[in-house]
Amino acid sequence: MRATVREVAALAGVSPKTVSNVVNGGVPVRPETRARVERAVAELGYVPNLSARGLRNGRSGVIALTLPEMRNPYAAELTEWFVELARDHGWVVQLDQTGNDPERERDLVSRARAHLVDGLVLNPVSLSASVLASTEGLPPTVVIGEVEPEHVDQVHVDSRAAAAEATTSLIAMGHRRIAVVGAATETWVTATSDLRERGYVDALEQAGLPDDPALRVPLPDWSTATAARTFDAWLDHNPLPDAVFAFTDSIAFGVLHVLAARGVRVPQDVSVMGFDDIAAAAFAIPALTTVAFDRRTLAGAALRLLARRIDDRSAPPETFVVPHRIVERASVAPR
Q: What is the distance between the alpha carbons of residues 162 and 28, in angstroms, rounded to a whole number?
């Protein structure tokens, strides 16, 4: 038989309400009381009845986290923090991916509208974010990533400012021909690629350098394999640049692989900079200079805004910008 909340309360010597406060979170409980309840929960193998809870308060205790793809290291690191921090809100996280398909975004929002989840954290594919064009019927939603509509809660890094700062740092070290790998293609434009490319151009203009279209390396997706294949083909027809600014660390790994295979020294012959500071960046050869930001801060801010939106659907939209910084490592050197 499933242990009940009353049995847990009796064993811990507290009220059923205190057990609920410990299990569900959100209400402060004295540390010694929490410890007694947690011991009783473990001893009895108590599992909260989420279905019954949902019937009482109209909520499922489940939120959805939707990313363009789950296979890259950045997504894995971000997901880990969402799952970990959601527990503090008493939530279970349902994971899904859009595969960079706006139609799948619309399907996911429709599912959320049907109350299958209490709220949605969405990383949109395109800058226009047509799926978020109206708040009418929109479930509690927080967007991670830059989008144009200002009527939704948003948490993001300022990609344009960060890319401008990264490019400016390369220029300050004497690099003039700076290639960007990860630019948009004619058929695939994401909000992130668009804004990082704009930041790159901002820095060139500020330094009085020409914006050479030949230094853009478009990618149909941001995997390491695609980056390596595309950058290798680009080098067959273009001279070696002074530096490469890769729009993600995963892209930078592909660039480093190609340069090593061609016998090009990094950073002596060409500098390489990434974006995201995933865990593997510090262990690349050479260690990767990159734009860093705190994933825990991003996930925590998104969950805070989602909890606020679930409790008050009429609250004014809020935007939280996650601070960024450049982590200097061995892959960049003065020209």
A: 38
Tens digit of each residue's pLDDT (9 = 90 or more) over 191-216: 889 999 999 999 999 999 999 999 99
pLDDT in tens, 278-288: 999 999 999 99
Residues facing 122 on adjacent strands: 66, 143
Which residues neighbour 280 within 8 Å (Cβ) at sequence distance 6 or greater? 73, 249, 253
Cβ-in-10-Å burial (0-12, 13-18, 19+) of 31 comes to exposed
Q: How far apart are the first and last CA of the chain?
A: 71
Rounded to whole angstroms, what are the CA distances from 187 to 42, 127, 219, 220? Answer: 53, 14, 10, 8
Calculate the alpha carbon distances from 169 to 45, 98, 175, 211 in Å.
55, 34, 9, 17
> Strand 289-293 vs strand 324-327: parallel, antiparallel, or unpaired?
antiparallel
In 3D space, the residue among 255, 294, 291 whose CA is nearest the CA of residue 272 turns out to be 255
User: H helices then E strands: how many in the chain?
Assistant: 11, 12
Q: Token digits for 231?
A: 């950058």
* Structure tokens belonging to residue 23: 């299990």
The strand ranges marked E within the chain are 62-67, 92-97, 119-122, 141-144, 153-157, 178-183, 216-218, 243-246, 271-276, 289-293, 319-322, 324-327
Q: Is 141 helix (H, G, I), strand (E, B) or coil?
A: strand
What is the pTM assigned to this prediction?
A: 0.81
The pLDDT averaged over each successive group of 10 residues in the chain (335 residues) is: 85 90 75 89 78 56 88 93 92 85 72 73 70 67 80 93 98 98 86 93 98 96 95 98 98 98 98 98 98 97 96 92 98 96
pLDDT reported for residue 55? 43
Which amino acid makes up residue 180? V
Burial class of residue 44 in the structure, from the number of CB atoms within 10 Å of its CB (0-12 exposed, 13-18 middle, 19+ buried):
middle
